[in-house]
Design brief:
Layout (H helix, E strand, L loop, with lengths): L5 E3 L7 H6 L10 H11 L2 E8 L4 E12 L3 E6 L9 E2 L5 H14 L4 E4 L11 E9 L4 H7 L2 H13 L2 E5 L2 H17 L7 H12 L4 E8 L2 E11 L2 E9 L8 H15 L4 E8 L3 H8 L4 E11 L4 E3 L7 H9 L2 H15 L1
Parallel strand pairs: 4-6, 11-12
Antiparallel strand pairs: 1-2, 2-3, 3-4, 3-5, 6-13, 7-12, 7-13, 8-9, 9-10, 10-11, 13-14
Helix pairs in contact: 2-7, 5-8
Length: about 350
């Protein structure tokens, strides 16, 4: 028996988020707010494949159509999203869902379908990452005791050094975070996302009480920060940045700790630390040190012309990173404003 799959736009669909929060496996990235940010920042077209029954999601797979003269036309679930699994409790509809996505993609002349969810044991992932999630239900005091000794030491060191951390929701804080974000992206050999993207984050997420900014200040200067998104009882650490000149103060650790305390006190159940490249041992070690649960995140690419999953990579090569790292900031801003909408 085949299920009827509807294609909806979460931006226009009434009470989308109310339906979402009552569904199994939801995350912040499934919300209409995130869809608005992606659409208005990069002009992607939302096509969310859904199985509905009496105003309840039995299943839902969010996709964005990316049309690019550089990278082709394709469906992505979802652009700039660390992890985006299908939601719902109707396993019997999974095959109908993926077939509907393929059929739609062929009609729209997509070259690929990029999936950031699913388990295909007989297929080779396009790229894999580590994902880390922290259980906040233990409470701040017990969580602190579970941190690795080096993490607890770093937090205490930042406090003794006089680093001051505050939670913000102002546009001034957003601008300060973006300044740090640009510094960090250059150090890692990547252009920063265009400021317009962060303006949309502020408009649709921060201003709607779906996120906040954490800044660490030392001697009057903001030296580290992070941005968190929340929905329901779940939270995501989406961005983190710092001024490397102050790395010895360990302000990054204090930023994360203050955010954990803030969220645990307000009843959030889990905190996702985002994705980590397989070869980034330092970042992986940092995230494990917080007592997180680790899992492997596999991204898959389906070639509609070949009608098969294909191997590949979606990572920036080391050669490009060296080039970006050497660029002056104004040129990096230009690269970011031009390239990100094609990357998806």
């Amino acid at each position: 028996m085949h299920c009827h799959v509807d294609i909806l736009n979460p931006i226009d669909y009434p009470c989308w988020d109310e339906l979402l929060i009552s569904s199994q496996g939801y995350s912040f990235y499934h919300t209409s707010a995130w869809a608005k940010v992606l659409c208005e920042s990069y002009r992607y077209h939302p096509v969310y494949f859904t199985l509905l029954d009496k105003n309840k999601f039995l299943a839902m797979t969010p996709m964005m159509e990316v049309r690019s003269i550089l990278t082709g036309r394709r469906g992505v679930c979802l652009p700039f999203t660390d992890q985006c699994e299908s939601i719902g409790d109707n396993n019997s509809g999974a095959e109908d869902m993926i077939e509907s996505i393929k059929d739609y993609g062929r009609r729209r002349r997509w070259e690929f379908i990029d999936l950031r969810w699913g388990d295909y044991p007989n297929e080779t992932p396009a790229v894999s990452f580590y994902g880390h999630k922290l259980d906040l239900t233990l409470g701040a005091e017990q969580l602190f005791c579970r941190f690795r000794h080096s993490v607890r030491t770093a937090i205490r060191k930042a406090i003794r050094a006089g680093v001051n951390v505050k939670i913000h929701t102002s546009i001034e804080a957003l601008k300060e975070y973006y300044r740090l974000h640009c510094i960090s992206r250059q150090r890692h050999g990547l252009p920063p996302q265009p400021y317009r993207f962060f303006e949309k984050v502020y408009e649709h997420i921060i201003c709607k009480d779906l996120g906040f900014i954490v800044l660490a200040c030392y001697c009057g200067a903001n030296i580290a920060g992070a941005m968190f998104f929340n929905f329901g009882d779940k939270s995501v650490c989406k961005f983190a940045a710092s001024d490397y000149r102050y790395q010895h103060l360990r302000a990054n650790d204090l930023v994360i700790w203050e955010a954990i305390k803030w969220q645990a006190q307000r009843g959030y159940q889990s905190l996702c630390f985002g994705r980590t490249a397989m070869d980034n041992r330092g970042l992986r070690r940092f995230k494990i040190g917080w007592g997180t649960e680790e899992r492997v995140l596999n991204y898959y690419r389906y070639n509609l012309r070949q009608d098969a999953f294909v191997a590949g990579t979606q990572e920036v090569s080391s050669a490009y990173r060296h080039i970006f790292r050497a660029m002056p900031m104004p040129l990096l801003w230009l690269c970011g404003s031009v390239l990100y909408k094609h990357v998806g």
